[in-house]
Amino acid sequence: MSSAKKIKRIAVLTSGGDCAGMNTALRSVVRTAIYYGIKPFAVMYGYKGLIEDDFVEFNRRSVSNIMNRGGTVIKTARSEEFKNKKGRLKAVENLKKRKIDGLIVIGGNGSFKGAHLLCAESDIRCIGVPGTIDNDINGTDYCIGSITAVGVALDAIDKIRDTVTSLERIFVVEVMGRECGYIAMRVALAGGAEEVLLPEVKPDFKKICREIRSAHKKGKVSWILVVAEGAGHGHKVAHDIEKMTGYETRVIVLGHIQRGGAPNAIDRILASRLGSSAVTSLIKGESDKMVGIIANKAMLTDFSKACKKKQETDQKLYRLLKILEA
Ligand code: ATP
């Protein structure tokens, strides 16, 4: 790819849902670009800002003291306009008028679908950096933000456990993750949950309730059931359990707190590595790809493959949870 046109100016944006570590990735992109003599521009509000021409030229100092902060300082947005070719052509126009020839998109699989179309419709080179708590992207073992999100949810579960054991109740805890059970599985295992409902495993609800009743008769008085949002609504699950067991059941939907907080050390290192790899990939002439981490190595995967539906397939972890549950 050494014959590729030399990149002189790049833009970077964050898109879709925010997550811890986006700022760290942004810092890495900006500083790596400057290190290689490339002028970096930040695009505010993701694809919305790309269409509305909301660009800011960044320098090393623009990204000082942000790597430990949650959210994204260049903001994020969801843009319906970018889903249409007309909107994307406007975005390309705005990039071209600044002579920007490379774009780095930090976001989830929806963002990469958009980036893939941008690559097909223009000569702008584009590389994606996976940043989403859902960890639902192919071509990377971990997305930036997902490990921090598990930690945040785990902290909540530990606190809920105090109440569960004191009140002697069943608690249903709904966690995020869209159609992927990554957060639910990890948090259930690390939090010692009695049960987990995953989008990938059809639950035998009657069996779960039978087990609760039988264990209750033997003296077990408290349960935590983790429900992935893609497996069902926490309120409905709690209602059904209460109806089928006769035991009082409470529900907690953790919601957006799982997106917040400072990125942990693993996410900061991951974001620093992937942000930097995205820039060097552009320099090498790569495009239409996402840079991910596979077996601790930075690897490129075509956008078309990265955005295909990924599910939690770690059956070994699921079996382990079943062995360890009380
Ligand atoms: P998260 O997983 O955190 O929600 P995401 O990147 O999947 O992140 P989306 O809202 O799905 O979040 O996508 C972000 C943006 O990407 C959308 O607002 C839209 O502008 C663009 N996008 C999503 N899907 C497409 C598509 N099929 N075609 C073109 N652009 C798209």
Number of domains: 2
Work out the helix count. 11
Largest sheet: 7 strands, mixed
CATH class of the largest domain: Alpha Beta
Number of strands: 11
The hetero compounds bound to this protein are: adenosine-5'-triphosphate
Helix content: 40-55%
Q: Mean pLDDT, as a whole number?
A: 94
The geometry reads as elongated
CATH architecture classification name of the largest domain? 3-Layer(aba) Sandwich
Oligomer: single chain
Structural class: alpha/beta
Query: Strand share of the residues?
Result: 15-25%
Description:
- The chain is an alpha/beta fold and 326 residues long.
- The chain folds into 2 domains: 9-145 and 263-306, Rossmann fold, CATH 3.40.50; 147-259, Rossmann fold (3-Layer(aba) Sandwich), CATH 3.40.50.460.
- The protein has 11 helices and 11 strands.
- The longest helix has 22 residues, at 146-167.
- The termini are far apart.
- The mean pLDDT is 94.
- The structure holds adenosine-5'-triphosphate.
List the helices and strands and how they pair.
Blueprint: E1 9-14, H1 22-35, E2 39-43, H2 46-51, E3 55-57, H3 85-97, E4 102-107, H4 109-121, E5 125-130, H5 146-167, E6 170-175, H6 182-190, E7 195-197, H7 205-217, E8 223-228, H8 234-245, E9 249-253, H9 265-283, E10 289-294, E11 297-302, H10 303-306, H11 315-324
Parallel strand pairs: 1-2, 1-4, 4-5, 5-10, 6-8, 6-9, 7-8
Antiparallel strand pairs: 2-3, 10-11
Helix pairs in contact: 1-9, 3-4, 5-6, 6-11
Residues 15-17, 47, 78-79, 82-83, 107-111, 113-114, 117, 132, 134 line the site of adenosine-5'-triphosphate (ATP).
